[in-house]
Design a protein that fits this description.
Layout lengths: L2 H9 L11 E3 L12 E9 L8 E5 L7
């Protein structure tokens, strides 16, 4: 996804969506009921140094590849 794609999606949102929580869905094993498992987003922005060509979404909790 490019930033222009994200901007286009955001432009489709309505004012009533302003208070929606921004989250990252995560996988969990087992039977799950209710809200999808997720972690909240801490901050978003352009990376620095080697990551300067990236727009990064940092989660509140560390996500580790397994």
């Amino acid at each position: 996804m490019k930033v222009k794609d994200l901007k286009a999606i955001m432009a489709l949102l309505k004012d009533r969506d302003d208070d929606l929580e921004v989250v990252i869905p995560i996988e969990k094993k087992g039977v799950l009921l209710g809200v999808s498992p997720h972690v909240k987003v801490k901050v978003v922005g352009r990376g620095i140094d080697w990551d300067s060509k990236l727009f990064i979404i940092w989660p509140e909790e560390k996500l580790v590849e397994v």
